Amino acid sequence: MSEPDLAEESDVEYPFFYVIRHAGRHHLGLFAAAVLLTIVAAVNSNLSVYVIGVGFDSVFSSQPLTVPLVPDTWVPTSTEGQLWFVGGFLTVSGTVGVFVAIGKNVLWELFGQRVVDDVRVQTFDSAQHQELAFFDTHQTGDVMSALNDDVNTLERGLSKSARWAVGTSVTLLSALAFMAYLNWQLTAVVFLLLPILAAINIHFSRALSDLYPPIQRAEGRLNARMESTLGGMDVVKANAAEGVERERFTGRSGDLRDKSWTGTRKRIQQTPLVQGVTGLVLVVVMIVGGLWVIDGPPLFFTGTLTVGQLVPFLFYMRNMEGGIEFLSALVGIYQWVNSSAARIVGVRNADDRVTEDTDAQPVERVDGDVAYEDVTFSYPGTDEAVVDSVSFDVEPGETVGIVGSTGAGKSTLIKLLLRFYEPDDGVIRLDGRDVTDVSRQDLRAAVGYVDQESFLFDGTVAENVAYGEEGVSHEEVVAAAREAGAHEFVADLEDGYETHVGQRGVKLSGGQRQRVAIARALVRDPSVLVFDEATSHVDNETEVLIRRNLAEITADRTTFVIAHRLSTVRDADRILVLDDGQLVEEGTHDELLAEDGTYADLWRVQVGEVDQLPDEFLERVGADD
Ligand SMILES: Nc1ncnc2c1ncn2[C@@H]1O[C@H](COP(=O)(O)OP(=O)(O)OP(=O)(O)O)[C@@H](O)[C@H]1O
């Protein structure tokens, strides 16, 4: 099955605006202030150009000097006085410009960073609320790439590009206003540019919107490769597979390079084309305007044009050129940011689809009656029922072993109880209540789960035992560790419960990790306990020790023990035997041996009576392989 694309999980039309609308609405004040200062900065800068132009005409051509926003009575009448006045005006305007520019930059950066911080936290939260099925089909590295690369792209898009976009648009519009004020007829010539520029930009926008998503996918795939290799470094080393990994990495890195280059090649054509067209129109305006100043209005133009009008006009056009180039480049930037936003929405949308427990009733205390009624389940994207019409009922306090050959569906059966996945058919009940009516939070507080991996987080032993449970006292941590048979070895560690276990708990042995993981499950005093191959990594003596403790732990709790080692479940009140997703036998150890079916065969394998195994069993095992 191919990996689904995060961007395709997004079903919104404009992901960038969708993300910004959701995260940005808490920071509207900052946004408004930033836009306001941007407008002030643009108008201020264009006003200075205008004042230079009219000052030029008044000083050298004795034209009257009028300055917007300044009362005429403030303007001196002598030529020299007017020169000093223009100089003074430009100084004030320049000083205001400096402070306004600093203020607007600060506001835009603050806005960008705050919005992106919200986006990052919300997306992380969505990712961790995903059903397990999401992580079965999406590579962790790809999701991390959405949280890192795509969120960073969004940040750049917001704090830089949005600022420039607003700034440039305001500069362009106010420049156009000043140009029209200076000479509307020449301004009309400039408008010839618009359809040509629009055509160029639409062409690039379409091309780039197709080119960027594959680049981001390639980035995600590269990240996934890195994550997988670094996560399995011990296996890489044990198999001397550095060469193979280098080759795989080189492949994905090359794929990213090629796709990036395709995008870059297209993008870098855009600016020179836009420059060429705007440069050409500038030349036309300069020649028409020049002829106008020298000989009076050419062609169909009317009225007068002075040097002091033409020079600032050309200056505005030159400035517009940079602005137009940037706005054109923005088309590409928008496509880039938009496809990053689509991946972010992909993570968040998938989260929206998680059936949340809106009608779930709170659960105070669970007795531990567990019933499966005709439960059937296939993993998403497959047709094969991994759990096939399974029914059984377990009384509170019962200890139930679940056995079966590898791949029979034992772990899946139990994951359905924890709502890691939802059954396709049938109902699972806890104390008579359909588990889909119990919130996941309550369910996972009522059911303690210890799996084969015994994953520990980087942190202290105490933090790992208390993990996920608020307000746990040190005494409770120690009590749980004692129950799990972990206290003795923890007390012998250099820093006791404050010892750091390292990444994934590497500083502890497999058996020690398992005991800490059992303590973690016990600390919340669950009514139902599940051990999924939880003692598979430990030696026989440790298993005996854990089992001795377990006898006490499980005495008044409903307990499920999934085990390959049948000695682990031999004393269970009942043993369920699964084969190919179906519940084929059920009973105590002695009853099942007497039945002489699948369980008896598995038992013979374990006690070494391989000669006595029936042919069908061997055939089935062979076929399974
Ligand atoms: N996340 C998954 N996505 C798709 N298929 C899966 C997934 N997890 C397990 N399976 C498939 O479901 C079947 C049952 O797996 P499960 O882990 O429940 O078996 P099991 O009896 O616990 O096996 P084992 O004893 O080897 O742990 C297997 O064929 C497995 O390939």
From TrEMBL:
<keyword id="KW-1133">Transmembrane helix</keyword>
<dbReference type="InterPro" id="IPR027417">
    <property type="entry name" value="P-loop_NTPase"/>
</dbReference>
<keyword id="KW-0472">Membrane</keyword>
<feature type="transmembrane region" description="Helical">
    <location>
        <begin position="83"/>
        <end position="102"/>
    </location>
</feature>
<protein>
    <submittedName>
        <fullName>ABC transporter ATP-binding protein</fullName>
    </submittedName>
</protein>
<feature type="transmembrane region" description="Helical">
    <location>
        <begin position="188"/>
        <end position="208"/>
    </location>
</feature>
<keyword id="KW-0812">Transmembrane</keyword>
<dbReference type="InterPro" id="IPR039421">
    <property type="entry name" value="Type_1_exporter"/>
</dbReference>
<dbReference type="InterPro" id="IPR011527">
    <property type="entry name" value="ABC1_TM_dom"/>
</dbReference>
<dbReference type="GO" id="GO:0015421">
    <property type="term" value="F:ABC-type oligopeptide transporter activity"/>
</dbReference>
<dbReference type="GO" id="GO:0005524">
    <property type="term" value="F:ATP binding"/>
</dbReference>
<dbReference type="Pfam" id="PF00005">
    <property type="entry name" value="ABC_tran"/>
</dbReference>
<feature type="transmembrane region" description="Helical">
    <location>
        <begin position="164"/>
        <end position="182"/>
    </location>
</feature>
<keyword id="KW-0813">Transport</keyword>
<keyword id="KW-0547">Nucleotide-binding</keyword>
<dbReference type="GO" id="GO:0005886">
    <property type="term" value="C:plasma membrane"/>
</dbReference>
<keyword id="KW-0067">ATP-binding</keyword>
<dbReference type="InterPro" id="IPR036640">
    <property type="entry name" value="ABC1_TM_sf"/>
</dbReference>
<dbReference type="InterPro" id="IPR003593">
    <property type="entry name" value="AAA+_ATPase"/>
</dbReference>
<dbReference type="GO" id="GO:0016887">
    <property type="term" value="F:ATP hydrolysis activity"/>
</dbReference>
<feature type="domain" description="ABC transmembrane type-1">
    <location>
        <begin position="32"/>
        <end position="335"/>
    </location>
</feature>
<dbReference type="InterPro" id="IPR003439">
    <property type="entry name" value="ABC_transporter-like_ATP-bd"/>
</dbReference>
<keyword id="KW-1003">Cell membrane</keyword>
<feature type="domain" description="ABC transporter">
    <location>
        <begin position="370"/>
        <end position="605"/>
    </location>
</feature>
<feature type="transmembrane region" description="Helical">
    <location>
        <begin position="28"/>
        <end position="52"/>
    </location>
</feature>
<dbReference type="Pfam" id="PF00664">
    <property type="entry name" value="ABC_membrane"/>
</dbReference>
<dbReference type="InterPro" id="IPR017871">
    <property type="entry name" value="ABC_transporter-like_CS"/>
</dbReference>
<feature type="transmembrane region" description="Helical">
    <location>
        <begin position="273"/>
        <end position="293"/>
    </location>
</feature>
